[in-house]
Design brief:
Pfam families: Ribosomal_L33 (PF00471). The chain is mostly beta strands. The protein has one domain: Rubrerythrin, domain 2 (Single Sheet), CATH 2.20.28. Helix content is about 0%, strand content about 50%. The protein is built from no helices and four strands. The protein has a four-stranded antiparallel β-sheet with strand order 2-1-4-3, with no helix packed on it.
């Protein structure tokens, strides 16, 4: 069985730049500062469903 992938979306422009494996034990959405190539800066990226 393959792992499900979840996208990380930029909180500023909304583009989905990164994918991660979903974790069923995670209760809250993951929030990480990542570089957004569309904004050109480090912004908060949130897990999407």
């Amino acid at each position: 069985m393959a792992n499900r992938k979840v996208a990380l979306a930029c909180s500023v422009c909304g583009s989905r730049n990164y994918t991660i494996s979903s974790n069923p034990n995670r209760t809250n959405r993951l929030e990480v500062n990542k570089f957004c190539k569309h904004c050109g800066q480090y912004t908060l990226h949130q897990e999407t469903k």
